[in-house]
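Possible regression after last week's pipeline update?

I re-ran a chain I had predicted before the update to compare outputs. Posting the input and the new output here so someone can diff against the archived version. Not blocking, just want to make sure nothing changed silently.
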Amino acid sequence: MLLHLLVLAPFAAAIFMVATSKEDPRSSFRLAFLFGLGFLVLSLMLVAGGNQATTPVEWFKIPGCKGPVYYYLYSHGLGAWMVFLSCALSLVALISAKVTASKNYRNFAIGIFSLMGAMNGTFLAADAVLFFFFFEAMVIPAAILIAGFGGKDRAKAAMTFAIYTLVGSAPMMVALWYLLTLADNSLLLSLAVALQGIPESAQMLVLLSFLLAFLVKTPIFPFHGWQAITYAEAPAPLSAILTGVMSKAGVFGFIAWVLPIFPLSMNVVSTMMWLGLATAVYGALMALRATDGKKLLAFSSMSHLGIAVAGVFSLSEAMLPAVLVLLVAHGISAGAQFFLMGIAERMSGTRELDKLGGLASKKPVFSTLFGGAGIMSLAVPGTAGFVGEFAVLLALWDMGPLAALVMGFTMILSAAYMLRFIQKVIFGKQNSEYDAGPRTSGIEGSAIGVMIALLLVFGFHPAFITNSLHLFDEEAVEQMADVSKAGEAVGLPEEEEAEQAVVEEEPDQPVKPMTDEEIAQLDSTLAANGFSEEERKSLIEQLSATNAALIVEDTTEAAKEASND
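New output (post-update):
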């Protein structure tokens, strides 16, 4: 029930918001705030509740495909924390928009709740078609919000954002349909099995299609053309959600869908890792020369997500907890910075860094929050960002000292542009006339203050995040396998059932023992998918025992055949 509520209830909340009066933004805000607070509580329950799954329900069948599509939700540690970010940043966005979207607050809240439901569905979907549906559905409310509440180039930004992300996902749609014509259903295990039965060239095309969709959504260089203008022209509360949550859908796709399904060669792994590091350096250099505050934050986000992607494809044992802490830390810190940049823009009427300055004496509360958020994003010791980035640095070290050296250079660049950003906005000479009176409301400042405090809490005790990290537990895997078998039995035509019956009557094929190389490859795959050292050791021991028994059996049979001859 909890998973259903987190996915479907935000859409219901959007419908309820339609019933509020457009002429009474205060009542709209009160209702939206209560809904947002409720969803935040549900997300905390999800994080605390561990792995959860719904009962798979057959949804529909795609023409030409073997099996059905299921409405099936599953929560693991990674998805649960992404849902937390979705609900938390959406709530703060609703609070922040009380000032910026006051004249049309109801419509803004409708868009935010629709976006929240799509994001939650993306992180909780256990069916590939359901995942792709929500993955694409996120674009619609986001583009509408940009077009309706963005800056002077909002139409261009909304169109660029929609075209890039939708066109980038088109090859994935075709590749997914191709896999569904071969798989028993659209669940992860069935797709992984179906993939093994196609030629290597076809496997590579399918892999590239998936990678392209996630590279564009993150975004990773050179597929980042939509990001700077979108983040700059979107309203600041929406920019916080785009960088803090929606961009994580690409990294989530790499971890939850690419790694478990595709057998990756070292060439692919190395290419993706270096692409992530190139993005990190490029984003940091672009942020260093940026003159627009929101574009600086956009390139900063791009740099941090490049580090996350590089960490994912390090395939280290420590990769998953390291990347998860990094994603949570970045989501909170980048989101807080966009909220604060939005406040600075509405106080001064500009995003240009050369026209800001001197806020420390004029707006001490805002300046304290702004400086604190900036320092937290520097990944100084004691913050969640430090834990995440240092753990990713260690993971990259396993791939070679050069990769770790490049990441270290990126961290130096990030300190340079972030300190420059802080100095330009709140210190130095005042270059603009600021509106009189408090521009940071009590509830808005408190919400951002809580975000900054969370970065310290997670920095001193990252186990709050990492203890919940289990990608797929045994019960979920067994449930997926049962559904696959049931779908295969139900979905076969009569002729295929007869053929299957004939096949089942044939004697079993002999099982060959695994080679040492195959066992080592399996161990690496298990490590990449979140299995602990003890779990992997237990599985490898069982496989070794089975191998030994098979070898003895083969030797005995060979001896019997020799004696009979």
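Follow-up from reviewer: compared with the archived run. The chain is about 75% helix and 0% strand. Marking as no regression found.
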